[in-house]
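Task: sequence design from structure.
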């Protein structure tokens, strides 16, 4: 049975992500030290990540690159094409504060 991502706490998700990183690293026969050296961080940081501690998106990108899994970013961040007109019509119209003041004083 897999994890319910919507019911899991942030900490549970970090633990799950850490386990997946560790499993992928091990499957590729890479040590924690080798991964740490490859991405330029300390082994303690790798140990903390794999045990469920918080880490930055930049470190995630470096880990995915080191494990040859960078394409997996497309799985959780699929490209959605929005044309410029849609982007413009979905943003609320900005109103200058001076215009609001003028309208309320009339």
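Answer:
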């Amino acid at each position: 049975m897999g994890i319910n991502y919507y019911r899991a706490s942030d900490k549970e998700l970090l633990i799950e992500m850490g386990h997946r990183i560790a499993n992928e690293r091990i499957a590729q026969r890479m040590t924690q030290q080798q991964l740490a050296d490859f991405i330029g961080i300390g082994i303690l940081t790798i140990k903390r990540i794999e045990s469920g501690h918080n880490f930055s998106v930049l470190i995630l990108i470096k880990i995915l690159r080191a494990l040859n899994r960078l394409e997996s970013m497309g799985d959780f961040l699929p490209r959605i094409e929005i044309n410029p007109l849609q982007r413009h019509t979905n943003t609320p119209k900005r109103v200058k504060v001076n215009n609001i003041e003028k309208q309320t004083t009339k």
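The mean pLDDT is 87.
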